Amino acid sequence: MLPQRHTEPDLFVCDILDATPKSDRASMEHPLFSLSVKKDLAAFEYEQGNVKVKITPAAEEGRANVFDRDILIYVLSQLMAAKNEGQEIGRRVRISAHDLLKATNRHTTGQAYATLRRALTRLQFTQIETNIHDHGLGEWRSISFITDARIVKEDSTGRLLSVELEMGDWLVKAIENKNVLTLNKAYFQLRKPLERRLYELARKHCGKQDVWRIGLDKLQHKTGSTSTAKEFKRLVKAICRADEAQSHMPDYRFRLLHDVLEITPKPEFLEIYGDSPSFASDVSVRLSSDAYDQARKAAPTWDVYALEQEWRMWMNDPPRHPDAAFIGFCRKWYERKGKAP
C-alpha cells in the first residue's frame, strides 16, 4: 500500500454554533499581545525565567493587540469543539465574518468588518521570535499567529463575508494536545485591554485555588504593560474598585492590597469547575501565613509573592512540605541574587 500522504483535512469550516471559548495556555501566560488600542509600532521584548520573546510589529498596522486575539479564541474554540466531536482538524480554516463578530460580542456594522480586516493583517504580519514550544522550551524560532489569510467572499461594498486562514502550527498543536483553557463568554464584554489581560492571568494562575497573589511589579511585567509603575497601579486600582462595586470581572474577584493583587474564584465559578480535574501542577500546594513571614526574612527586600510565582513555575511536583520548600527556595534566591534591584 502507498503511504497516506495527507493526514490533515484540506479545509476546516468553522460552523459549530455556541462553541465554548478556548485559549492556548502560552499566550495566557506570556504577553504576546499589545495592550494598546492605538497602532503600536514599537518592538517588544519579554523575558521570564528561561522564556524569551521578541515581537516585531506588522509594518502597516502595528502589533497584534488583545482585541485581535478574539479571532484566535474563536477559531481555537471551533477546533476544540470539532476535535471533541471526533472530527479531523487542521491548520486551514474558513470562518464566516458575521458569525465571528456575533460570537465575540462585536457590532456587525460596516466599520466592524473594516476593523476585522485590519486585525487579520496584524495577526498575520506580527512576527514572534521565541523559545516557547508546545512541549515546553526549545530552540529559538520565529512564529506567527496566522501564516496566511485570504478573503474568499465579500459583498458589493467590500465587506468581508468569508475568510480562509492558515493558523500557526503551534496554536493547532495546543488544540491537539489539549493545552488550552476555557474562558468565560463574558470575557468578550470586557472593554479595557488590561481587564482582559488580568482575567487571562487569573484563569491561568489562580484556576480553582483559594487565592492567588502577585506583586504589582511582577504583574506589570506579566501583563506586558508599558505604563509607568504609578500609572499601572492606578489602572489596576480602578479595575479593582469597579469590580468591587459592580462585580463585572468574570469568574474571579480582584482586590488590591497595597502593592499586591489578590485574586479569588467566585462561588459561581467553583460551582461549575470545582469538581473538574485541575491541570495546574501547583493547585494543591498551599502556603501558610507564617511561610510568607519566614520568606521575607530569608529574602529581604524581595517581593515574596513574586518569588512565590517563580517558585511555583520552577517546581515540577508538589513538595511534601510546601512551607519549608518555599522558604528554602527564597533563601537560595537571595544567596544567588542578593538584594532586589
Please, could you describe this protein's structure?
It is a single chain. The chain has a 4-stranded mixed β-sheet. Strands 3-4-6-7 form a 4-stranded antiparallel β-sheet, with no helix packed on it. The protein folds into 2 domains: 12-183, no CATH class; 189-337, no CATH class. It is built from 12 helices and 13 strands. The chain is globular, with a radius of gyration of 21 Å. Residues 1-8 and 276-283 have low confidence and may be disordered. Helix 2 (69-84) runs parallel beside helix 5. By secondary structure, it is of the alpha+beta class. The N and C termini lie far apart (65 Å).
Task: Put the structure in a nutshell.
This is Replication initiator protein A. This protein is of the alpha+beta class and 341 residues long. The protein is built from twelve helices and 13 strands.
What are the defining features of this structure?
four-stranded antiparallel sheet, alpha+beta, 13 strands, 2 domains, 341 residues, 40% helix
Structural class: alpha+beta
Total separate domains: 2
Characterize the overall form: globular
Helix content: 25-40%
The major beta sheet can be summarized as: 4 strands, mixed
Q: For the CA atoms, what is the radius of gyration?
A: 21 Å
End-to-end span in angstroms? 65 Å
- For the biggest β-sheet, the strand order reads 1-5-9-8
Protein name: Replication initiator protein A
InterPro entries: Replication_initiator_prot_A (IPR018777), WH-like_DNA-bd_sf (IPR036388)
Pfam families: RPA
Organism: Roseovarius mucosus DSM 17069
